[in-house]
Amino acid sequence: MSSPHLAAPLDVEQRPGRTPLLQVDPTADAPGWAAQHRDGLRAAVAQHGAVLVRGLGLRDAAQVAAVFQRLGTGLMAEREAFASRQTYADGVYSSTKWPANQPMCMHHELSYTLEIPSLMLFACLTPPTAGGVTAVADSTAVMNALPPELVQRFAREGWMLVRNYNDEIGASYADAFGTAERGAVEAYCRANAIELEWQPDGGLRTRQRRPALVGHPVTKQPCWFNQIAFLNEWTMDPDVHEYLVEMYGADGLPFTTCFGGGDPVGEDVVALLNQVYEANTLREPWQAGDLMLVDNVRMAHSREPYQGDREVLVGMSEPLRMPVPGGGR
Predict the structure, then answer these.
(1) Per the domain annotation, does 305 fall within a domain?
(2) How far apart are CA 165 and CA 161, in angstroms?
(3) Which residues, in sequence order, are bridge partners of residue 165?
(4) Sign of the four-CA dihedral 104, 259, 319, 39
(5) How confident is the model at residue 6 (pLDDT cuts 50, 70, 90)?
(6) What share of the chain is helix, strand, coil (3-state, %, to 5)?
(7) Per-residue pLDDT for 3 more than 50?
(8) Tally of domains in the chain
(9) Cα–Cα dist 255/229, whole Å
């Protein structure tokens, strides 16, 4: 993430267990406010890792897009999605389609890709009637709370994401790669250090090894940066897991994660990771019109189960190129 310009500090409220909160005066011109306070808000994100802005009263997708564009440095198109999103405008998406009764566990957005967004932007148009918090957790605090030997192993090996694409569950490979043309998919995979294997039934299996720890682009502080827990088979609802294994076999699950050398990440490791994330979680329930900025390297984020309608828009900005374990491209 680029270093923010010097700016007058904003009055961000810090509360134990709660996301840092900036309460602002209501305005009819949220994009104008965003342009005026961009540097101060970016400095607050650099200080706190995440800031929820309340009072802007964001009303619709066009207004949200205008605010996102003023706060970021261009909005990124998503690649390698694991579930569908609705597109509202260029670079402005719905939150990932995921069952409302199941959590999206802590993760760093697109940490399995080689070009990641270092800044995440969220805006709530319709809050749920219960739950549905987009919570955050400091990745360095999480790393420091994990057993040193586990951190050291992941530091040495990295982590591996294994995906099986089919047309029945999750994103198809055409959705994920933006094309159904096999040659184009193969070219993308070669350029992005992804091993691929076409299946006899026309499906696709991929493996990609990524670093589990990275240095923050500004502070150089080591950060626990991955989706090891979220995209692991043991994070699935047990009934869903049992059904998928019965339907597709243990090797045919839509996704799971391994140690970088290929060894499975066990249920005990996933439970430990989620326990440590929970101990370091900050949460603030959404209100209509809220805006939140998250440093995607420093902070993991999650989506908690919810009831009722929920409309949260997402933008990704400030691409950052990730290293490949072992020094490959």
Answers:
(1) yes
(2) 13
(3) 204
(4) positive
(5) very low
(6) 30, 30, 45
(7) no
(8) 1
(9) 11
* pLDDT value at residue 2: 47
Is the Cβ–Cβ distance between 301 and 105 less than 8 Å?
no
Domain range for residue 91? 21-101+115-130+285-317
Cβ atoms within 10 Å, residue 218: 15
The DSSP call for residue 230 is T
**CATH number for 95:** 3.60.130.10
pLDDT tens-digit map of 202-231: 889 999 999 999 999 999 999 999 999 999
Mean pLDDT on 173-179: 90
On whether the CB atoms of residues 144 and 152 are closer than 8 A, the answer is no
Kindly give, in sequence order, each residue whose CB lies less than 8 Å from that of residue 162, ignoring residues fewer than 6 positions away.
205, 206, 207, 255, 256, 257, 258
Structural domain contains residue 84: yes
Predicted TM-score (pTM) of this structure:
0.93
Cα distances (angstroms) measured from residue 26 to each of 58, 72, 127, 286: 10, 22, 18, 17
**Average per-residue pLDDT for the chain:** 93
